[in-house]
Amino acid sequence: GRPPSPRTRARPAQSRLAAGEVRLVVIRREGQWAVRVYDPAAPARRAFAGIEATPYDPALALPGYFRPYPERRTVQVGNADGHARGLGLGGELAFTREGVPHTLQVAVDEGDGSLWAVFADATSGGSSYRFRFLHPGTPAPDGSITVDLNRAQLPPCAFADHFICPFPPPGNTLPFEVAAGERRLKGALAAGN
Question: Which of 4, 81, 111, 119 has the fewest beta carbons under 10 Å from its own?
């Protein structure tokens, strides 16, 4: 078709546009409109050399227990874009490593009850990205759950600046090295991670 005039109204179904291989997605966040650009020829995409990940270690799949809060709570945390936002938390994930008890505050998916933690550890900002995500799944009816640290994942903001990622809430920095899971980006993009 023809290029849009300076004033173009698009319906929600038209919020995704394409120009050749470049994809544009119109988003609205916190009352502000923005266009997210996905370009397969972007310099960062061409420089992507993969993810440094640690081989699976069964010793890092730890038995744990989910303790729900009586009421969900929201804590203000910094985000990768420099703004503070509320992070909804539904309870604590408790586990023991080498005889020492630890907890992580977790969000609870309202749909399937699965848990999600934002955490840092003794490797953060060094041999791993400054923080990571953990999705341990849905606890059993009795609250038991496996805390598999091998499943630590890089947050989306490790790959591109336009993602808003919450930083770990207070208390979610583990005092030991989580030398497991996705650690950081390989190559040029890993600088500063």
Answer: 111
* pLDDT tens digit sequence for 2-58: 666 666 666 655 577 787 888 888 888 778 788 888 888 888 888 889 999 999 999
DSSP string, 107-174: EE-TTT--EEEEEB-TTBTTTB-S-EEEEEE---TTSEEEEEGGG-B--GGGT-TTS--BPPPTT-B-
Residue 37 inside a domain? The answer is yes
Return the residue matching tokens 């009850």.
113
Cα–Cα distance for residue pair 24/19, rounded to 1 Å: 8
Do 144 and 164 fall within a single domain?
Answer: yes
- Do 140 and 69 reside in the same domain of the chain? yes
For 61, left (φ over 0), alpha (ψ -120 to 50), or beta?
A: beta
